């Protein structure tokens, strides 16, 4: 205990890190499968089945990271949990209805009588779109400190669109990795279109955050922080350039480098995430409540931490196992 | 209507919808494991056919449970922030352990169980089936720990209106937990038993004479016949436990107004809370005293003990608890009669295919008897807890969010519409799958799968 000093300090920080990790994993993993859902209407009938096949074994576990993230918020920062979720009452409801529609559509579209399939395909798209838009909207409102004015609502509307574009972009890069032939070429096309949305989105958030919050402005633009932070935008810019270059040359003949756009996009998401986490620390409700003020009793946090240290590696382990089992092109998934 | 009432209706609707599906998946996971193991032991194709049919029902039910469960976990924050602010130190870790030990296990291995049969060795597929079943049961364990703690809180102390854990062992093994957990797991077993029996009877009735349908009908009937007496005993123990810790709930269940001996067991009555008496009572003399106190003149607590001097009431609304309890018990009695009659006839006549047609017809609507009993039991225990959210610690009113009523009403209407739609689709698809299987379209030869989208076909 002495090693870490006051548990009232390091426990909230540990849990903020755990929550951040869950959100990051969620955004990457459910991001790509939500993105595949957003791209659904642009595909032919047979391609839709293959798109579903590429995410079928994963989506449920991907979504669980959201439950873990919200669970940690609830467990570790109960007052923030209530404050954030009641402030976001309507977008949360839209997201939940989206998640409901989309989650059951996976099952119903193949099990329901054939004439219903089209409707469930539409429900799958609508659910994915509702979920992505509402998450982007919530992100925007959160950046704006959960304040409701015409300006913040407008900003949230913009982030809603951009996050949806970002999800569909990572979804397209996932399809480049998991599919081949015509569908893969199509996915490259989708990614080419989406990358500009990603650039605009990252740019909009990066410009707006310091403008709205003098605190973030100081955190970014004082010495030496500005030099320590500089690698984030620089690496991001380099990645975007590489992505744009790679997309022009994909798909290759031997399907080499098909993994690159997906991996590069994950890296981009991670960089953006760290920028944001750095900017908001130590707040859990921006400008209102710090993680230290909102934290639960240390004894409760300690109980969870012990379990987490055992269980989280196991979760990571069998998650990796499932990605290994279902590796390769989605079309290769068959009963031999 | 005010925010409190609307929020209660919304959460009630949500949890009513949600509970239907875990009730199926908890026990169906183990039944699937049973089918898979039987197949491995005997090599008989009927067990694999049974597995393939019921794994579809499992996948569909699981998805329905997941999406409505996520909704619930968010509604703690959107509609009941006071709950976490007050007892978050206890509820939080329990929910966190559910997510970490159960959710991920189920979700990851479900993928392998549904789509991995050809990708992994058979033992790993069987292990995945086991882990999914184990995960759903762990999930039920943690949720029932939390729910039981809300009924019979223990192992904590209050400081400035916030609960702090003092003894985790006492929190987890709180006084009503073992009873509630056993009662719920058995309810799940019965729900699945009658669902399997009902859908199999339906297939038999429309002319499906396959080995698989006979095997599943027999499995469902025997399972139901074995579990129902155990459930009646477990329910009785649970009732006695409730009498000890929440006498006002038992008083409402019995429709008993005055604390007294020789209390009759009411078969029917119209409880009138205004007049504080029952109308049109039909009862068995001394019945309630005998059941609850094992003595004809045993003193049973009455509702009037829970009215303060100033007229404020701390017992639950009587009529809903009284009636839902009777619906639960009545459904259980129907389960007992039907499953025992069916098993007896099955043995005498040498097989399920010789069961009389009226009995098979009666089994079809009983496919959802488990849902009726579970919901009725759920209402009995949860409405019976009112006005408390956490017995003696936090009232429902104290926990509700200050969200404007029209906002709650809007989302309530949206949820109700979507739940109605999904419920209709779910039940239709169950019968559609049964008809399709009965026509023999279920078992596609493996070679026919090449060239199609394999996961979609495998998931079908």
Automatic annotation (TrEMBL), chain A:
Residue ranges of the TM segments: 15-43, 64-84, 90-110, 122-144, 150-177, 189-211, 226-247, 259-281, 301-326
Compartment annotation: Cell membrane
Keyword Transmembrane helix appears in the UniProt entry: yes
Statement: the UniProt record of this protein carries the keyword Glycosyltransferase: no
Lineage: superkingdom: Bacteria
Location (main, coarse): membrane
Membrane topology value: Multi-pass membrane protein
InterPro entries for the chain: Cyt-d_oxidase_su2
Record keywords, A-Z: Cell membrane, Membrane, Transmembrane, Transmembrane helix
A Pfam match: Cyt_bd_oxida_II
Similarity field: Belongs to the cytochrome ubiquinol oxidase subunit 2 family.
Protein name per its UniProtKB record: Cytochrome d ubiquinol oxidase subunit II
Species, as recorded: Thalassococcus arenae
From TrEMBL, chain B:
Membrane topology, from the record: Multi-pass membrane protein
Residues that span the membrane, as ranges: 15-33, 53-74, 94-115, 127-150, 181-205, 217-234, 323-347, 359-379, 412-433
Subcellular compartments: Cell inner membrane; Cell membrane
Recorded superkingdom: Bacteria
Pfam name, any one: Cyt_bd_oxida_I
InterPro entries attached to this UniProt entry: Cyt-d_ubiquinol_oxidase_su_1
Signal peptide, first to last residue: none
Keyword Chloroplast: no
Keyword terms: Cell membrane, Electron transport, Heme, Iron, Membrane, Metal-binding, Transmembrane, Transmembrane helix, Transport
Similarity remark: Belongs to the cytochrome ubiquinol oxidase subunit 1 family.
Protein name: Cytochrome ubiquinol oxidase subunit I
Species of the source: Thalassococcus arenae
């Amino acid at each position: 205990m002495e090693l870490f000093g006051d548990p009232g300090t390091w426990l909230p920080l540990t849990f903020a890190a755990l929550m951040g990790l869950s959100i990051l994993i969620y955004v990457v993993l459910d991001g790509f499968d939500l993105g595949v859902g957003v791209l659904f209407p642009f595909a032919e009938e047979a391609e839709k089945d293959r798109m579903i096949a590429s995410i079928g074994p994963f989506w449920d576990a991907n979504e669980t990271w959201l439950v873990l993230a919200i669970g940690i918020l609830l467990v570790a920062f109960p007052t923030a949990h209530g404050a954030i979720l009641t402030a976001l009452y309507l977008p949360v409801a839209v997201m939940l209805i989206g998640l409901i529609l989309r989650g059951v559509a996976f099952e119903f579209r193949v099990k329901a009588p054939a004439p219903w399939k089209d409707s469930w395909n539409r429900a799958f798209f609508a659910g994915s779109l509702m979920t992505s838009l509402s998450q982007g909207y919530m992100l925007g409102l959160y950046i704006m400190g959960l304040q409701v004015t015409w300006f913040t609502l407008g900003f949230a509307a913009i982030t809603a669109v951009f996050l949806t574009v970002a999800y569909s972009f990572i979804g397209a890069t996932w399809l480049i990795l998991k599919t081949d032939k015509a569908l893969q070429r199509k996915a490259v096309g989708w990614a080419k279109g989406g990358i500009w949305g990603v650039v605009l989105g990252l740019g909009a958030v990066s410009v707006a955050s310091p403008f709205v919050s003098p605190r973030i402005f100081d955190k970014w633009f004082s010495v030496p922080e500005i030099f320590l932070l500089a690698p984030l935008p620089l690496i991001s810019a380099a990645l975007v350039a590489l992505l744009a270059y790679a997309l022009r040359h994909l798909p290759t003949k031997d399907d080499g480098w098909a993994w690159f756009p997906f991996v590069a996009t994950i890296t981009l998401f991670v960089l953006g995430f760290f920028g944001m986490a750095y900017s908001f620390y130590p707040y859990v409700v921006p400008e209102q409540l710090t993680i230290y003020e909102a934290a639960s009793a240390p004894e409760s946090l300690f109980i969870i931490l012990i379990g987490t240290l055992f269980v989280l590696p196991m979760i990571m382990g069998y998650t990796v196992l499932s990605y290994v089992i279902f590796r390769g092109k989605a079309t290769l998934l068959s009963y031999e | 209507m005010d925010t409190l009432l609307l929020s209660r209706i919304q959460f009630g609707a949500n949890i009513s919808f949600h509970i239907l599906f875990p009730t199926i998946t908890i026990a169906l996971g183990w039944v699937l494991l049973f089918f898979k193991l039987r197949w491995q032991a005997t090599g008989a194709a009927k067990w694999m056919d049974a597995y393939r049919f019921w794994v579809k029902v499992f996948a569909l039910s699981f998805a329905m449970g997941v999406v409505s469960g996520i909704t619930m976990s968010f509604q703690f924050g959107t509609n009941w922030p006071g709950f976490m602010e007050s007892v978050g130190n206890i509820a939080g870790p329990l929910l966190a352990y559910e997510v970490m030990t159960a959710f991920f296990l189920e979700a990851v291995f479900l993928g392998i169980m549904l789509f991995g049969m050809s990708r992994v060795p058979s033992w790993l597929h069987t292990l995945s089936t086991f882990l999914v079943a184990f995960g759903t049961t762990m999930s039920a364990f943690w949720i029932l720990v939390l729910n039981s703690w809300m009924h019979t809180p223990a192992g904590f102390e209050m400081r400035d209106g916030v609960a702090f854990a003092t003894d985790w062992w006492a929190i987890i093994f709180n006084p009503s937990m073992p009873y509630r957990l056993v009662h719920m797991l058995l309810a799940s077993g019965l729900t699945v038993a009658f669902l399997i029996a009902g859908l199999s009877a339906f297939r038999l009735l429309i002319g499906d004479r396959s080995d698989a349908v006979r095997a599943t009908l027999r499995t469902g009937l025997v399972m139901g016949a074995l579990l129902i007496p155990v459930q009646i005993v477990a329910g009785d123990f649970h009732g006695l436990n409730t009498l000890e810790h929440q006498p006002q709930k038992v008083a409402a269940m019995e429709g008993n107004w005055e604390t007294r001996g020789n209390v009759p067991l009411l078969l029917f009555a119209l409880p009138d809370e205004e007049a504080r008496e029952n109308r049109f009572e039909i009862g068995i003399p001394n019945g309630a005293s005998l059941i609850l106190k094992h003595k004809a003149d045993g003193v049973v607590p009455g509702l009037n003990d829970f009215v303060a001097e100033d007229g404020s009431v701390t017992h639950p609304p009587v009529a809903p608890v009284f009636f839902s309890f009777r619906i639960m018990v009545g459904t259980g009695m129907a389960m007992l009669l039907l499953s025992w009659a069916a098993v007896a006839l099955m043995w005498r006549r040498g097989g399920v295919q010789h069961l009389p047609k009226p009995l098979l017809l009666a089994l079809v609507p009983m496919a959802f008897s488990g849902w009726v009993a579970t919901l009725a039991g759920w209402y009995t225990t949860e409405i019976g807890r009112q006005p408390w959210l956490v017995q003696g610690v936090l009232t429902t009113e104290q926990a509700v969010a200050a969200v404007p009523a029209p906002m709650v009403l809007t989302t309530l209407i949206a949820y109700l519409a979507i739940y109605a739609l999904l419920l209709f689709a779910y039940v239709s698809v169950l019968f559609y799958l049964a008809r399709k299987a009965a026509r023999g379209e279920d078992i596609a030869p493996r070679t026919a799968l090449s060239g199609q989208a394999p996961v979609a076909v495998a998931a079908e």
